[in-house]
Amino acid sequence: MPHHTFTLNGKQVSVDTEDNVRLLWVLRDLLGVTGPKYGCGLNVCKACTSHINGKAFNPCSVPVSDIKAGDEITTIEGLADDSGQLHPMQEAWLEHDVAQCGYCQPGQIMAAVAKVKAAKAEGRELTDADFDDIRNICRCGTYFRIREAIKSAEAKM
Questions:
Q1: Largest alpha-carbon pair distance within the chain?
Q2: What pLDDT score was predicted for residue 30?
Q3: What are the pLDDT digits (tens) for 80-100?
């Protein structure tokens, strides 16, 4: 069976699994990381949004064979610092009481963090177009609170 090694939330991990297994199932079923949620498996709902090398991606649509030994995967579990201090985006989510059912929230937060980091790397603040580009689906419809939390966290990141 093929052997796959990569960094997950700051720690080197290895798994033995077939090359065509989607990374989401490797994370959830083989490594016990359940923050990224299964929603559609088609890269549409984005409930599984995580980061690969600092950029948002959806592990439901990526075979584990596409992940290289030098790749760094970060899930919601790896967002807080080593002391357990929440990331500013996580704090903003709580301050703005964003979550209702909570299912999509890990993916929403990870997409928001990546979007803010990308804008800051370009030396600018988020625009309406940036917000429109975040395509994560929230079945509870908390989009207004999501947007307000992102704006609040942007100032702290």
A1: 47
A2: 98
A3: 998 989 999 999 999 999 999
